[in-house]
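Protein: Putative chitinase
Species: Anopheles darlingi
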Amino acid sequence: MMVGLKIGSLVLVLAVLAYTVHAKSVANGAKVLCFYDGEAALKDDPLTGKVTLVDIEQALPYCTHLVYGYAGIDSKTYRLKPLNEALDLDTGRGQYRAATALKSRFPGLKVYLSVGDYYDLNEKDTSEKYLALLESDDSITAFVSSARTLLKEYDFDGLDLAWQFPQPAPKQTTDHILESKGYAYRDGFTKLIRELGEAFGTDELDLGYTIPPHVNESFFLDIEQMKDWLMYVNINAFDQNNQKRNPEQADYTAPIYEAPGRTPGNNIDAKVKLWSSAGTPIDNIIVGIPTFGRGWKLIKESGTTGVPPVRADGPSPIKSLSTYAGYYSFTEVCAILTDTKQDSMHKVHDPRFGPYAFRVPDENEANGIWLSYEDTESAANKARYVKETGLGGIAVNDLADDDYLGRCTGEKFSITRAVRQNL
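Structure follows.
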């Protein structure tokens, strides 16, 4: 019995070492992870947000990795599955294969598949199956086996786990159902990452983790146990505030540092320090930045200074190409900022907290908007922060929301370009 345990322990140690050596040797220098939502190809035309794999080729010289999204989890079998088989599989339009084929034209490019994010929630915007999977060894095994098979079949280089843990609303604590589970989910997620790492190490597949904002790290994540299996940890340090979480208060969505009087921890620098202090190698930490803006509706009670936090009344009514009210791609942000048919927008750019722009409402309480966004200057500023801090790189989320038409600066994918030039 003891011999069996020793052999098992030795196999585990060798698997960790093999995977860690592979992870360290893949990329020299800063990474630029470029996320791409494949369903952007299904929109009507470029003027309504259609961005294809052919279109994003102009961005790929600035990317070290293309992260294609999104896959999901089968709620019955807990196997990894495409969310749109007709779009992604060879039996349909074959975008998985087309995405990985880009490696032949862009030497050194790695192509990952991302699972989860906000694209695989149920009709109530909850993520029960992502938690249920973690409660069963059989479910974990099914997911690991199916992930390995799918990645190998379509020639992906790795998997990005954009795992959907609950994100409580402001002033809301974790609910009693989660509390009753204790730290079982944390142990289950650690087991999932370890088993993925062991399986992937055999095939030289990479494994990364993308953490959404507002996940309770201490409750769900054993950072110390996770770190040896992960190529990177991508901190999506945006949407710290948005219209769904904060409908009555407009504020910075992606600050580098903590603004006065804000909730501690809701900024890039705090998240980086949390992960590094818990043992994550500094050069494995990736900072996720948005290529979109969030707009709130201003009202009479909002005042006239525009200085955040500002009283608001839900999302901006200005129409957008997105299905999410008040969500604007960078191209749309530029159009709003330069719209001559409306009163001009007042723009403020603070390198610590990011840019915002606002227009006070008229006497009928119409046309008022407060907009937090990313632009080329703020993206470059974050790239310099990453470089000076010695972090692993930046994740651009999403190429389909960058200026793919070149309308803002005359250069296509200008946010992605600014990131690459300043790392």
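Remarks: Confidence is low (pLDDT under 50) at residues 1-28.
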